[in-house]
From TrEMBL, chain A:
It comes from the Bacteria. It comes from Mesorhizobium amorphae CCNWGS0123. InterPro entries: AAA+_ATPase, ABC_Ni/Peptide_Import, ABC_transporter-like_ATP-bd, ABC_transporter-like_CS, P-loop_NTPase. Residues 7-257 form the ABC transporter domain. The keyword Membrane applies. This is ABC transporter, ATP-binding protein. The keyword Transport applies. Pfam families: ABC_tran. GO terms for cellular component: plasma membrane. Its main location: membrane. GO terms for molecular function: ATP binding; ATP hydrolysis activity. It is found in: Cell inner membrane.
UniProtKB/TrEMBL annotation, chain B:
SMART domains: AAA. GO terms for biological process: transmembrane transport. GO terms for molecular function: ATP binding; ATP hydrolysis activity. It comes from the Bacteria. InterPro entries: AAA+_ATPase (IPR003593), ABC_transp_ATP-bind (IPR050319), ABC_transporter-like_ATP-bd (IPR003439), ABC_transporter-like_CS (IPR017871), P-loop_NTPase (IPR027417). Transmembrane segments: none annotated. Residues 6-249 form the ABC transporter domain. This is ABC transporter. Keywords: ATP-binding, Nucleotide-binding, Transport. Belongs to the ABC transporter superfamily.
Length: 276, 261
């Protein structure tokens, strides 16, 4: 498979209280065009920093070393025939879905306009066509009554509906790469499953590459073809999902898998039950 | 069987939103035995956290009764209510949001001991050290500010603060949901140890059926403010009967491991 991007010796450090704190250390990673890759880690693992670095959204104060090489031929599409850029454009070539949809949506702008604006800016559409596209996108993310929904404001929607709108805005310009950073972590289990299934469907229909950042290894395993495990800013191991889940090479990956409490887990209550 | 520690009957709470009345909690009844863990599970908006706040009397119900340690808990007021509150404690999801972030660990543990008159000023430093030890922390953590310590340590402090007043029931509202998985197991084990040693009952509120199944004796599954089903935690989660119970089990991520670890 063609690599959509190759990350070489990527290091990122943030300045905090006058000190430099390493968030990512010498990361080497290829992301194949069209694959679904999960980035797994606990807090402080660097997983969100990696997502921001790929999207070009790191704060200006971050110190970045190494490089990200993009296969720009993968980004040519009917919408942008004469693309001569060396790096993709965030918002057009890369769609980003954050954890908190309330923070990524403008609270005082109708959601239809927010989605149409992305299509207008990046695809050069006029407002009527951009609104028509927004309506189609709201249908695709399965928001009830898309025609009326265009005129609603974020606060009128539930958390799951807001995340659907954020996804619609993220894919409005037809990005090649979709990054979802803990996109379902604030949602309840049922809505989370719906959003994951929606992401899977959209990625497959549009032939997008997916980078799914999560703390939940079970959720990641249900969605991704490959899993990369991060810890303390380092890439611990990467492999096909079945390999990582069934034959982890690294002790930390095994510890993460063992810490998962699934519906088939050994009850922890045993001791208390025995003494009762 | 002993008389229940907590009995909730016909509990109801309505909110008005945009001219409409929404039943956040609608005719909910359950009981918790001493030393038992009862879990409340359900999707967002099912009423789990509203029930927690009603039981803690952070908000007042529109209807229903709450019996706690044999008394009509809703009828208590003033000093009688304050005294009884020592027996009914709480731990929330995010201790950093619940506590003054600049307060020291010692200060946070001193509060309940002082307010409930549990220990004299001279005795309190020793009691604070003992509390830290009971939750598996080193006594030299006492002078540290709460924002300086790790998330797992903070949740241990929240538990230490809750057990400081010798409670019979602790309401745990998504108390392990924000923790890293490597820390979560330790905190759950701490809660189980405390329960085994001190016979504390837990009202354990969680959206995570895996965790509920692992640590709760019984579960109540809520949907839109009403009880959809309830019973033995492993029996209910193993074979849910209600539509919402089935949907929750179906939606829970599953890790298909072929090798035993």
């Amino acid at each position: 498979m063609t690599a959509l991007l190759s990350i070489r010796d990527l290091s990122v450090a943030y300045r905090r209280d006058g000190r430099e704190v390493a968030a990512l250390k010498n990361i080497n990673l290829d992301i194949a065009s069209g694959e679904r890759l999960a980035i797994i880690g606990e807090s402080g693992s660097g997983k969100s920093t990696l997502a921001l670095a790929i999207a070009g959204l790191l704060p200006a104060s971050a110190r970045i070393g190494g490089r990200i090489d993009w296969q720009m031929s993968e980004f040519r599409s009917p919408h942008q025939p004469s693309c001569l850029r060396k790096t993709p454009l965030s918002g057009r070539d890369i769609g980003f879905v954050f954890q908190d949809p309330s923070a990524s949506l403008d609270p005082v702008m109708p959601i239809g306009k927010q989605i149409a604006e992305v299509a207008r800016t990046h695809l050069g559409l006029g407002w009527p066509q951009a609104y028509a596209r927004a309506r189609t996108l709201l249908e695709r993310v399965r928001l009830p009554d898309p025609g009326t929904a265009l005129r609603t404001f974020p606060h009128q929607l539930s958390g799951g509906q807001k995340q659907r709108v954020a996804i619609a805005a993220a894919i409005a310009a037809g990005p090649k790469l979709l990054i979802a950073d803990e996109a379902t972590s604030a949602l309840d289990t049922i809505v989370q499953a719906e959003i994951v299934s929606l992401i899977r469907q959209l990625v497959s229909e549009d032939g997008m590459t997916l980078l799914f950042v999560s703390h939940d290894i079970a959720l990641a395993a249900e969605l991704a073809e490959r899993i990369a495990v991060f810890r303390h800013g380092e890439l611990v191991e990467i492999g096909a999902t079945a390999e990582i889940v069934n034959a982890p090479r690294h002790a930390y990956t095994r510890a993460l898998l063992d810490a998962h409490i699934g519906l088939d887990a050994e009850p922890m209550l045993r001791r208390a039950g025995a003494s009762a | 069987m002993n008389s229940p520690l907590l009995t909730v009957s016909g509990l109801a709470k309505r909110y008005r939103r945009g001219g409409k009345t929404i039943a956040a909690v609608d005719d909910v009844s359950f009981a918790i035995e001493p030393g038992e863990t009862l879990a409340l599970a359900g999707p967002s908006g099912s009423g789990k956290s509203t029930i927690a706040r009603l039981v803690l009397r952070l908000i007042e119900p529109d209807a229903g009764r709450i019996q706690f340690e044999g008394d009509d808990f809703l009828a208590l007021s003033g000093s009688a209510l304050r005294a009884r509150r020592a027996r009914l404690q709480m731990v929330f999801q995010d201790p950093l949001a619940a506590f003054n972030p600049r307060a020291t660990v010692a200060r946070l543990l001193d509060d309940p001991l002082r307010i409930h008159g549990i220990a004299s000023r001279a005795e309190r430093p020793r009691r604070i050290a003992a509390l830290l030890e009971r939750v598996g922390l080193n006594a030299d953590l006492a002078p540290r500010a709460i924002h300086e310590i790790s998330g797992g340590q903070r949740q241990r402090i929240a538990i230490a603060r809750a057990i400081a007043t010798n409670p019979s029931l602790i309401v745990l509202d998504e108390a392990v949901s924000a923790l890293d998985v490597s820390v979560r197991g330790d905190i759950l084990n701490l809660l189980l140890d405390l329960q085994a040693k001190e016979r504390i009952a837990y009202l354990f509120i969680s959206h995570d059926l895996g965790v509920v199944r692992a640590i709760a004796h019984r579960v109540v599954i809520l949907d839109a403010g009403r009880i959809a089903e309830s019973g033995d935690a492993r029996a209910v989660i193993g074979a849910p009967q209600s539509a919402i119970g089935k949907a929750l089990v179906m939606a829970t991520p599953k890790l298909h491991r072929t090798t035993a670890s």
